[in-house]
């Protein structure tokens, strides 16, 4: 007589990785998880299939639970620690990468740029509204011909008296079509500078990017500037080189490190639930050795990714984190999540390609996450430079 099956153990419980969280951190994670279960999960498949996102309504709802710019202090921001912000990203991306992107671009790119490099007047004007979700921001750095090498950007801001005249364009800009304010990076005669520009400014045209096969529940746009005249008061006074936008990108990449663990966790949970009910050869497919081998591999990858994310959160809260450490986190965790999504999809067979299950959507999204905010190859070369002292990409 065979023994009854033991109760399954979640991979994060198996190694007790969540035992290090404080009660406050757990409470924040629970708030975001409950919000996601009630407001996001029931709608995400439709938003994705339709290629639409009610971004303004979602921004206000997300502002209502305090996750927009939550790791910033004052100006209406929650002022949480880095760990709590990471856990919020995890729960949002467990639903969809596009939802985490909305929050990440708002808080870690647009708001952080104003918070770190803006004038006091710019902070007072924009940050409280953005924290509430009453205003949405976007971040204009990438160009069609300058992605991995932003130092080569062609967008140019020319000084004209007390104003600046900006010409150029930006591509693949999340939140662009719904943004109230755009952080725009441009070459000048003195080097790269940043500008905080209301999107109603004359001379800016915003074109939605359609026909995406990934991140469909995310608004992506092209920004075009034709002799756009802005006053010097729009310039971010503390942004005086390319280092400024790169620091903003480091903030956003940190959220990806946690977020992708959420996508991986959801793929694991969905495939495990399927495998325990799907029967082949006189029993659930979860009893077969090859299927269990896939779960063991997925569980190990989730656990190691989570531990890496926790360690980086500790470094960030201690203000000791370095760019190459963030690169390793994104390099490892995105790749691990994508491998988990592919393995989980294989367990579902044909059912895995339908929108009834979240796995293929995660897999498609992660293909984009692999190459945005620093491609997989660029992060590999950042690590190579740190390990050898030689910059292979310069």
From TrEMBL:
Domain called Acyl-CoA dehydrogenase/oxidase C-terminal: residue spans: 248-387
InterPro entries tied to this protein: Acyl-CoA_Oxase/DH_mid-dom, Acyl-CoA_Oxase/DH_mid-dom_sf, AcylCo_DH-like_C, AcylCo_DH/oxidase_C, AcylCoA_DH/ox_N, AcylCoA_DH/ox_N_sf, AcylCoA_DH/oxidase_NM_dom_sf, Glutaryl-CoA_DH_mitochondrial
Entry keywords, A to Z: FAD, Flavoprotein, Oxidoreductase, Transit peptide
GO MF annotations in UniProt: fatty-acyl-CoA binding; flavin adenine dinucleotide binding; glutaryl-CoA dehydrogenase activity
Domain Acyl-CoA dehydrogenase/oxidase N-terminal, residue spans: 22-134
Keyword Flavoprotein recorded: yes
The Acyl-CoA oxidase/dehydrogenase middle domain, residue ranges: 138-228
Superkingdom, natural source: Bacteria
Cofactor list: FAD
GO biological process: fatty acid beta-oxidation using acyl-CoA dehydrogenase; fatty-acyl-CoA biosynthetic process
Keyword Oxidoreductase belongs to the record: yes
Family statement: Belongs to the acyl-CoA dehydrogenase family.
Protein name: Glutaryl-CoA dehydrogenase
Source organism of this protein record: Candidatus Nanopelagicus limnae
């Amino acid at each position: 007589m065979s023994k009854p099956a033991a109760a399954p153990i979640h991979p994060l419980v198996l190694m007790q990785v969540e035992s290090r969280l404080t009660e406050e951190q757990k409470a924040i994670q629970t708030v975001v998880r409950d919000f996601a279960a009630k407001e996001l999960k029931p709608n995400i498949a439709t938003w994705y299939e339709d290629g639409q996102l009610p971004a303004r309504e979602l921004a206000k709802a997300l502002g209502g639970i305090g996750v927009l710019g939550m790791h910033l202090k004052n100006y209406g921001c929650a002022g949480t620690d880095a760990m709590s912000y990471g856990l919020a990203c995890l729960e949002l991306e467990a639903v969809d990468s596009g939802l985490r992107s909305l929050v990440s671009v708002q808080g870690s790119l647009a708001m952080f740029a104003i918070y770190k490099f803006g004038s006091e007047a710019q902070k007072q004007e924009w940050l409280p509204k953005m924290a509430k979700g009453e205003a949405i921001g976007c971040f204009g750095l990438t160009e069609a011909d300058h992605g991995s090498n932003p130092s080569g950007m062609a967008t140019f801001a020319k000084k004209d008296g007390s104003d600046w005249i900006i010409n150029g364009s930006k591509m693949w800009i999340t939140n662009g079509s719904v943004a109230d304010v755009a952080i725009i990076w441009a070459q000048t005669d003195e080097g790269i500078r940043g500008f905080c520009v209301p999107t109603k400014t004359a001379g800016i045209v915003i074109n939605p990017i359609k026909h995406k096969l990934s991140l469909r529940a995310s608004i992506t746009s092209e920004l075009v500037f034709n002799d756009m005249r802005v006053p010097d008061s729009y310039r971010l006074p503390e942004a005086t080189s390319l280092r400024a936008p790169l620091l903003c990108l480091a903030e956003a990449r940190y959220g990806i490190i946690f977020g992708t663990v959420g996508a991986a966790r959801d793929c694991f949970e969905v495939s495990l639930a399927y495998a325990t009910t799907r029967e082949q050869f006189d029993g659930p497919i979860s009893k077969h050795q090859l299927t269990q081998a896939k779960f063991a591999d997925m569980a190990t990858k989730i656990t190691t990714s989570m531990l890496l994310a926790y360690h980086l959160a500790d470094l960030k809260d201690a203000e000791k984190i370095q760019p190459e450490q963030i690169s390793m986190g994104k390099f490892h965790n995105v790749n691990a999540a994508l491998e988990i999504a592919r393995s989980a999809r294989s367990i579902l067979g044909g059912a895995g390609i339908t929108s009834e299950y979240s796995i293929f959507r995660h897999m498609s999204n992660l293909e984009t996450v692999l190459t945005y905010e620093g491609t997989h190859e660029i992060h590999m070369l950042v690590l190579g430079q740190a390990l050898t002292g030689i910059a292979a990409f310069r």
